[in-house]
Design a protein that fits this description.
about 240 residues, alpha/beta, 7 helices, binds farnesyl diphosphate
Length: about 240
Amino acid sequence: MTPNPSPQADAPPPPRHVAIIMDGNGRWAKARGLPRVAGHQRGVDALRGVVEAGQEMKIDFLTLYAFSSENWKRPPTEVDDLMGLLRLYLRRELRDLHRNGVRIRFIGEWRRLAVDIVKLIEDAESTTAQNYGLTLVIAVNYGSHREIVEATKRIAAAVADGAMAVGDIDEEVFATHLHTDGIPDPDLVIRTSGEQRLSNFLLWQAGYAELVFMDVLWPDFNKTSLEQAIDEFHHRERRYGATSG
Ligand code: FPP
């Protein structure tokens, strides 16, 4: 007798790459009369939960926007708090993430951060480089405009040196000069907190992504929220510029 198929047997596969703009930590804290840092702390808890959910759901790539190149405009104490949380996260979680087969990649100009953080990031990337579970991509000091300008400069330099001809430049070549080289484009971009914009996040890479904006504040985001976003994704029809049917 053949066993009953599990209820999930016919479920469509999850998107391969989910990217998230984690927004609303400040408002979550304000609504509770707490300092903003408390919202960011709870934001790290939500982040931990979503990484676990991503692993369970067999998502291949999960990209999280942790600190934008524009976030330096925040008060220095808040910047320090966010850097402190990043430090703590890497120190405390690397072992477990590694044990669970998570591969860690950073995008953004993270080499410009404090030396000890740079060291932690290098360590996280090299320790987990051979893992083949979920790839967790953390965007820190990241901004798409700058990423695209820097890619353009490097391509222009290669042309000036004679290492590349103008005719060689195409979308594929351009993409290999972005921070996300080797990472597939996101299929789904989620932004929490009700705001509906991309805020300089993966502007090239998200060209054909489905965008899902959710009213939940980031600290309240959990596995169910992720499932809701993915359900919405599955109801969208991705046509990549072609006609339907
Ligand atoms: C947006 O909320 C959130 C951020 C700017 C930072 C996100 C960071 C974390 C979740 C924690 C740190 C990350 C790691 C990897 C340890 P907001 O402050 O803009 O909220 P608001 O719009 O309600 O003020």
